[in-house]
Amino acid sequence: MTEDSRPLAAALTAFADEHPLPYAPAQQMFRTLLPDALMKATSRQADRTYFVATGDIPAMWLRDATFQVLPYVQLIKDVPDLKPILEGVLRRELAFVQLDPYANAFNQTANAAHWRDDDETNISVSPQVWERKFEIDTLCAPLPLALRLHTETGDAALFDATFWETFAVILDIFEQEQHHEQSPYFFRRRDTAANDTLPNNGYGTPVAYTGLIWDGFRPSDNRCEYGYHIPANLFAP
């Protein structure tokens, strides 16, 4: 925890104290985790965005990042210092989507760290991409965060040119993957479990057009067996 983050941590602890849970051990856990879960996972970047580390892997999954910070949105009126952090998470997600809309996890810096260095895909993997498994929920992730932030704060400045440019990228990819047979994307990983790579030389199980969006991998990062993942399609705009 940095010196600058201590006031926010204190404000979140005070919020927990002002909203006690009826079971004392649960309240103690709430009091500890409310600041810790945010402060330990997020780190401010030079461009004032916020990187959200996911679990014990030093990478950011956009889906996980959104749901890690989403509960804090409802606290903005009580703890106003949350607003720039949560907006910074959204900005970082938008930047990552623009960097590579087919990637599912990203590095904090362009350090060329990858889950597997020998993955094969249709483009050179960016040094800031941790893994390039296409997952619909990755592209969906910034949208509920933006919507909830706007609903809570009324701040329409979120929907600037960068937001709409990124939204256009998301829609373009979804429209492309409604016709996956015409998509250039593939993903191959050698010497691995079957659910960690795509069959059919990396293009996935053959599919016919249905109007649904093709999905390479489920939110578990395991491959989709049949190409059209219904829960992910329901999540899509």
Automatic annotation (TrEMBL):
SUPFAM superfamilies: Six-hairpin glycosidases (SSF48208). It comes from Lacticaseibacillus paracasei subsp. paracasei Lpp122. GO terms for biological process: carbohydrate metabolic process. PANTHER family: MEIOTICALLY UP-REGULATED GENE 157 PROTEIN (PTHR31047). It holds the Pfam family Glyco_hydro_125. The lineage of its organism: Bacteria, Bacillati, Bacillota, Bacilli, Lactobacillales. This is Uncharacterized protein. It comes from the Bacteria.
